[in-house]
Amino acid sequence: MNFKKIAAWLLVAFSICVAVAQSAPASSLTSNPVYGKNCAKCHGDTAAGRHFRGPSLKSNKVASATAEDLRTIITNGKGHMPKFKDKLSSEQIDDLVQQIEAANKT
Fold first, then answer.
1. pTM for this entry
2. Longest dimension (CA), the chain
3. Res 97: pLDDT
4. I need a surface site. Which of 3, 32, 70, 91 has the fewest CB within 10 A?
5. CA angle 35-41-44, nearest 5°?
6. C-beta separation of 71 from 97 below 8 A
7. pLDDT at 95
8. d(CA 68, CA 58)
9. Is residue 81 over pLDDT 50?
10. Strand partners, 81
C-alpha cells in the first residue's frame, strides 16, 4: 500500500472510533457529562440529593417511578425542576433515564 491509502484507512478508522465514542453513553449516572453539567448542581455529585435543592435520585420513590415517568419529568420539569426538552436530545434523556434506573438497582 502506498502512503495515501494508509492515510485514508487510518482516517476512516479514526472516524469510526470517534463516532462510536460519541454515541456510547457514559457508564454510570454520575460519570455522565450530561448529568454533571445539567443535574449535579441540584441533585449532587453523587446523585444523593442536596439539602433545599433537588431530591436524591437514589431512593425508593425514584426506584418506583416508571421509565416514562422519569422521561416525562426530565423532559417537562416538575415543581422547581426546569424542563430539559429544549436543552437535551431525546437520546441524552433516554441515557439519563437508563442510568437513574441502574443506580436504583444497586
1. 0.74
2. 64
3. 98
4. 3
5. 75
6. yes
7. 98
8. 17
9. yes
10. 78
pLDDT band at 18 (very low <50, low <70, confident <90, very high): very low
CA dihedral 84, 89, 92, 98 (to 10 degrees): 80
C-alpha distances (whole Å) from 98 to each of 49, 53, 70, 93, 101 are: 18, 23, 9, 9, 5
- What is the pLDDT averaged over residues 75-99? 97
What CA–CA distance (Å, rounded) separates 81 from 73?
Answer: 8
**With left for phi above 0 and alpha for psi between -120 and 50, is residue 64 left, alpha or beta?**
alpha
Q: What is the pLDDT of residues 29-73, one digit of tens each?
A: 999 999 999 999 999 999 999 988 899 999 999 999 999 999 999
Domains of the chain: 26-103 (1.10.760.10)
Measured CA to CA in angstroms, residue 70 lies from 59, 63, 77, 93 at distances of 13, 10, 10, 9
Q: Grid coordinates in use for 75?
A: 423532559
The residue type at 52: F
